[in-house]
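Hi V.,

Quick status before I head out on leave. The structure for the redesign project is tokenized and pasted below; the design run finished overnight.
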């Protein structure tokens, strides 16, 4: 009995030791869930996920060995905003309009911009022989945007409304059809769409593969920002700060190493979309995009005005809490 008791004690101690070790390991590891889109306007996300994929994670190396990055891919802004509001992800690269819409609807309690990411890279592309130029020309026409309420969708609706057309979320003088980016290209090629308002690399693909003609380009507008849930900022602020700093460093690296960055973007887009992406397409799209980590409330007032014009925001929100400074 004495021998059995000693063995039992030893086994119990071993089990407890293993359990304690496992619990400690679980507590030591932090997982940050990050979203982005398979668009060249999400350059930082594409490069970072590529580096994570090959075992040289940019963020992992800068946030510490106990930090794991889980990447999640979305088609457009509203769906990724739903994910961050549902606490399915912590941070994401996304457009300004869905960010402002969520910020407004939550009275500024759920979302913060922690850095800028990219400008430009969005455009309105029409059929080459359409003759479409001004908003009035689009009466009765069909225009595709990536998703209802995303940055290009809001810009499209506001542009048409400012041009005198009556635009609603279900119809009006022109038909705006939220359509995933890959489907936009095939429908445009089949002449089932009169125009597409989208982002790179799809703008360049519409030009190269379907003969599309750009009539309006958002060359200087903010196209992508890095946002965080307020919950993540409250519970893991130091990690959020380190992530924002690593994002700034990554942006600087991409600007200093465009050749390597383009190759990574090409490989990552191919992996995420399961489609071949040419180096020439990447190079063409690259010329339309600017990278920045700056974010200013003044820049977003026009986005608010567009969202109001498009019917997504009724009352302009107080933007004083929109941007979180984590330097």
């Amino acid at each position: 009995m004495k021998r059995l008791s000693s063995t039992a004690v030893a086994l119990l101690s071993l089990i407890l030791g293993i359990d304690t070790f496992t619990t400690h390991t679980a507590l030591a590891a932090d997982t940050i869930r990050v979203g982005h889109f398979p668009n060249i306007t999400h350059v930082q996300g594409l490069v970072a996920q590529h580096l994570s994929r090959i075992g040289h994670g940019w963020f992992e190396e800068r946030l510490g060995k106990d930090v794991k990055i889980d990447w999640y891919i979305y088609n457009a802004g509203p769906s990724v905003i739903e994910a961050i509001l549902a606490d399915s992800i912590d941070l994401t690269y996304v457009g300004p309009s869905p960010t402002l819409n969520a910020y407004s609807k939550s009275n500024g309690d759920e979302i913060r911009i922690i850095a800028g990411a990219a400008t430009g890279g969005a455009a309105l592309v029409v059929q080459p022989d359409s003759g479409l130029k001004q908003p009035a020309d689009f009466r009765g026409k069909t225009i595709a945007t990536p998703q209802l309420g995303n940055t290009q969708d809001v810009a499209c609706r506001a542009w048409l409304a400012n041009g005198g057309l009556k635009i609603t979320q279900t119809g009006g003088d022109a038909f705006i059809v939220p359509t995933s980016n890959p489907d936009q290209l095939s429908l445009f090629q089949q002449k089932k769409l009169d125009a597409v308002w989208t982002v790179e690399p799809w703008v360049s693909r519409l030009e190269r593969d379907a003969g599309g003609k750009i009539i309006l380009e958002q060359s200087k507008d903010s196209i992508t920002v890095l946002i965080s849930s307020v919950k993540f900022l409250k519970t893991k602020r130091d990690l959020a700060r380190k992530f924002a700093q690593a994002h700034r460093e990554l942006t600087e690296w991409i600007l200093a190493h465009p050749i390597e960055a383009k190759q990574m973007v090409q490989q990552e887009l191919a992996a995420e979309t399961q489609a071949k992406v040419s180096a020439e397409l990447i190079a063409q799209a690259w010329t339309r995009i600017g990278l920045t980590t700056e974010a200013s409330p003044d820049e977003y007032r026009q986005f608010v005005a567009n969202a109001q014009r498009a019917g997504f925001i009724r009352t302009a929100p107080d933007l004083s809490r929109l941007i979180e400074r984590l330097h």
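Above is the designed sequence. Confidence is low (pLDDT under 50) at residues 6-28.

G. will cover questions while I'm gone.

Best,
W.
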